[in-house]
């Protein structure tokens, strides 16, 4: 079964106290984006990477590919106005056949082979795989009357890669866009299909603040 990884980089607003977008910041002397691409190619040598970037960042993405990878395994696609439309553009590059498709945030550099394989095995069995972590903090929900406590045992924190059989994900993205589509799981659910959860990874952090970059550097050295 063929394997594809759609790696989605944020838009021009995806920055962190820097003129450089987060996916291009250096982490242990390599761009953050490098680690996500490397993880999938390390796990599956036959994996095709579809890198979705804003048009103004295509040249920077190509420089990373030229410096670190065999370009034959990687395609660059121009993103859309939202994550939904960016993934849609990536899916247009994947043929209609038996395959497993991973969708991953470019700013999650610490993704492990073990997590990728867990998602892959879940797709083979159930057709979908969404990595999640238990919520350790107390949780409150804001409402019209103020706020209420929620039982954290019923809360899961969602990560990427989110993985699907191609015959599930591709038709799901033919539906009309809605603001509630914050990830691929919400799109597939709106299409009428169930989602399977897999155990996520505590180290699979998302680079959103300077502290996250410091933590990622420490994890790489550990």
Protein architecture, described:
With 222 residues, this protein is α/β, with parallel strands linked by helices. It has one domain: Spore Coat Polysaccharide Biosynthesis Protein SpsA, Chain A. The chain is 32% helix and 25% strand. It has seven helices and twelve strands. It has helices at 32-43, 58-68, 83-91, 113-126, 166-172, 184-190, 210-221, and strands at 2-8, 26-27, 30-31, 48-53, 74-78, 99-105, 128-134, 139-143, 146-150, 156-158, 162-165, 197-199. Strands 1, 4, 5, 6, 7, 10, 11 and 12 form an eight-stranded mixed β-sheet that branches. The protein has a two-stranded antiparallel sheet with strand order 2-3. A hairpin with a 2-residue loop joins strand 8 and strand 9. The longest helix has 14 residues, at 113-126. The chain is globular, with a radius of gyration of 17 Å. The chain starts with a strand and ends with a helix. The mean pLDDT is 95.
């Amino acid at each position: 079964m063929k394997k594809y990884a759609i790696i989605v980089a944020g838009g021009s607003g995806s920055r962190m106290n820097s003129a450089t977008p987060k996916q291009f910041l250096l982490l242990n002397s390599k761009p953050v984006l490098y680690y996500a691409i490397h993880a999938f190619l390390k796990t599956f040598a036959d994996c095709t990477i579809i890198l979705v970037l804003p048009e103004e960042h295509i040249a920077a993405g190509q420089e990373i590919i030229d410096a670190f990878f065999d370009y034959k395994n990687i395609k660059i696609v121009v993103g859309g106005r939202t994550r939904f439309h960016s993934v849609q553009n990536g899916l247009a590059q994947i043929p209609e056949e038996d395959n497993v498709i991973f969708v991953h945030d470019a700013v999650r550099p610490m993704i492990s082979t073990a997590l990728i394989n867990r998602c892959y095995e879940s797709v083979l069995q159930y057709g979908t795989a969404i990595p999640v972590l238990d919520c350790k903090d107390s949780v409150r929900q804001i409402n019209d009357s103020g706020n209420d406590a929620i039982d954290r045992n019923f809360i899961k924190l969602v990560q990427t890669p989110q993985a699907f059989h191609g015959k599930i994900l591709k038709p799901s993205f033919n539906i009309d866009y809605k603001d509630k589509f914050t990830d691929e799981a919400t799109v597939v659910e709106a299409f009428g299909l169930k989602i399977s959860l897999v155990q996520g990874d505590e180290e699979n952090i998302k680079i959103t603040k300077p502290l996250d970059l410091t933590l990622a550097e420490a994890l790489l050295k550990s």
